[in-house]
Amino acid sequence: MPRESDPRTIRDALDAATDAFNEEGFGVPTREPAIDPEADWKTQLTKACRLLAAVDRLDGHDYFTATIELCFGATERSVEAFALAEGGDELGDSRDHTTCYDRASALGLLSPETTIRLRQLYDTNRTDSYYGGRRPTERQATAMRTLSGAVHGFVTDQLREGGVCLCYADTQ
């Protein structure tokens, strides 16, 4: 099938998205102001803060799939922030969605039992809720919000350099 047979709206939108990610044209890009670019760990931690803030905005609107996705992302970004800040990791060391759980255990952030359970939760339920035929529930979304918030708060408390987390600032 030739490219020209694809809908023009898709081709144009794809071109625009590719340009946006390549930062081609349109002058200076507008970046998300709350994401701290000073250091990789700060970037990951503030991304987690923003994911949790987005979850809070979705609360009460029945976006359970989105909530679960964002919560898994917030958990990953939080643990990655710790691995970058305290473990000497490089940003490229996080090769997939589950590396952070292994690092949490290896760095002594969480016990091996807890990290195994977190990884199993991801492997079994994230994949099923997102790619599988299951329909996520409100209870699952609420539990994931509580879990990701607990992990994020704990990680933030374990970082030697404080004052980076935006969660408290977002509620003001």
Automatic annotation (TrEMBL):
It comes from the Archaea. The keyword DNA-binding applies. Residues 6-167 form the DUF8154 domain. GO terms for molecular function: DNA binding. It holds the Pfam family DUF8154. Keywords: DNA-binding. This is DNA-binding protein. It comes from Halovivax cerinus.
